[in-house]
Write a structure and sequence with these properties.
The complex is a heterodimer of chains A (251) and B (194). Chain A contains nine helices and no strands. By secondary structure, chain A is mostly helical. The longest helix of chain A has 37 residues, at 11-47. Chain A is elongated. The termini of chain A are far apart. The radius of gyration of chain B is 19 Å and the shape is globular. In chain B, helix 5 runs antiparallel to helix 6. In chain B, 61% of the residues lie in helices and 0% in strands. The chains are: A mainly alpha (251), B mainly alpha (194). At the A-B interface, helix 4 of A face helix 4 of B.
Chain lengths: 251, 194
């Protein structure tokens, strides 16, 4: 039987067509894997500085949190009284506290974007660590002031939202400052010494905040669901290990 | 065949509805859906909008602008800014240029802006209700500045004189002026005839 007359290609051209097809599939797969891999590797690196700003609703507040428990942090009375400790606008400048809080949040975005695109280094602004340190310091001061308030004050849904958001943001920025790599011996220049001092202050604020958070957890002021699905590890641990002995907010 | 036609009609309908929903809710072109007629022109051609740009530039320096009387309020800065801007704009459209509403294109734009102005007030008031009486009073006081009172007076005058009528607003008439619009329904327009 003549294969050509039956409309079937000879065996050799069939084989070469199959080989070409396999090569094409292989090239497409390789390209797809490279693109996806590249996005995952480089994308995650680029997104890392933005993570504190990319948290749900701007940080740490669960999208599914009970609206009666978690309100609007920017208008919280505790933010009104504490934000002036963190954001300095100079005498005679009357900035609405909710606007100052917004600027602080945007500062995080700006720092994250600068770091992600390498603008900070090229324009000699600040290093990645210094940016994180500066943001951690600001959020830490704000959180410290908020957590220093009487526990019952945080029963207000807006105040509780502010307490949740500030501590989560602080923890995320503090993690980026990477204290473990910094030692006093390494700090030689005045700039390095200042950075090291800053890191020590961050660590002190961190310990104090965590201890206050434990107390608030025991008093039933905050619960695990207030912090959303993926809170920083330290906060998760406290929420898991500490139990509420009473509910200060119930009265 | 009928099934195919149904599917085609469904897809075309969905596209049509989708376009209008995006235009209304996303792009915010609510004025496109105001009642049409010889009284209402094209809001995009309203000259009053650009004429009032200078008023908006200085809105936050105006001593008669809406201000928060109570230091311990829960109004976000975006809403505060919006209240000041909207008041300055509407004040310019209705008070500074009292005859602007007589021009068809301006009327379409101003009617839509009146809707937005009252919608913002209602939105802020509904948020304030969750905080109680004190916050409600704070919001009401904010929207009761000398500029807001002048706007209310100008609105009452325009409705009284038939310059703004119920049909201009269609089904979107704000609650605050609905009864007034009904009361003066059928009033002759006193706009100068051109």
């Amino acid at each position: 039987m003549n294969p050509q007359s039956a409309g079937v290609e000879p065996v050799e051209p069939q084989k070469s067509a199959a080989r070409r097809s396999r090569i094409r599939v292989w090239i497409v797969r390789t390209l797809a894997i490279s693109v996806i891999g590249g996005i995952l590797i480089f994308g995650s690196r680029a997104a890392q500085p933005l993570i504190p700003s990319l948290m749900p609703l701007g940080a740490g507040i669960s999208l599914f949190a009970d609206a009666d428990r978690i309100g609007r942090p920017e208008v919280a009375p505790v933010v009104r009284s504490c934000i002036s400790n963190v954001m300095e606008f100079g005498s005679g400048t009357n900035v609405e506290p909710s606007a100052a809080y917004f600027m602080l949040k945007m500062g995080g975005w700006q720092a994250g974007i600068f770091t992600a695109f390498g603008i900070s280094k090229s324009r000699a602004l600040k290093s990645d660590a210094e940016l994180s340190l500066s943001m951690a310091s600001k959020w830490g001061q704000l959180a410290d002031c908020i957590y220093a308030q009487a526990g019952a004050a945080l029963c207000d849904s807006d105040n509780r939202a502010a307490a949740v958001e500030t501590i989560v943001r602080f923890m995320l920025y503090a993690k980026q400052t990477d204290l473990s790599d910094q030692t006093a011996a390494m700090a030689k220049t005045p700039r390095e010494r200042r950075t090291f001092e800053g890191l020590r202050r961050i660590e002190a604020i961190r310990s104090q905040l965590l201890s206050r958070l434990k107390a608030h957890r025991r008093d039933g002021i905050v619960v695990a669901s207030d912090f959303g699905f993926f809170p920083p590890a330290e906060i998760s641990q406290i929420m898991r290990e500490e139990k509420a002995f009473r509910n200060v907010c119930a009265g | 065949m009928i099934n195919l036609l149904k599917r085609v009609a469904f897809v075309i309908g969905a596209i049509f509805v989708g376009i209008h929903l995006i235009n209304y809710f996303v792009l915010g072109n609510t004025a496109d859906y105001l009642s049409s007629g010889e009284r209402m022109g094209e809001w995009k051609k309203a000259k009053i909008r650009e004429a009032c740009f200078p008023a908006l530039e200085n809105a936050h320096r105006d001593p008669l602008r809406p201000k928060v009387s109570n230091g311990q309020h829960r109004i976000g800065w975006q809403n505060l800014t919006r209240a000041v801007d909207m008041t300055a704009a509407l004040n310019c459209y209705l008070v500074t240029h009292p005859d602007a509403v007589c021009e068809r294109n301006n009327r379409a734009y101003i009617v839509d802006y009146i809707n937005r102005y009252f919608a913002k007030f209602d939105e802020m008031l509904s948020v304030a209700k969750t905080y109680g009486e004190s916050e409600i009073r704070t919001v009401e006081n904010l929207w009761d500045s000398p500029r807001n009172r002048a706007i209310n007076a100008a609105l009452a005058s325009n409705i009284n004189n038939g310059r703004l009528i119920k049909d201009d607003f269609g089904w979107t008439a704000p609650k605050a002026i609905k009864s007034m619009l009904g009361q003066y329904h059928g009033t002759t327009d006193t706009c100068p005839k051109t």
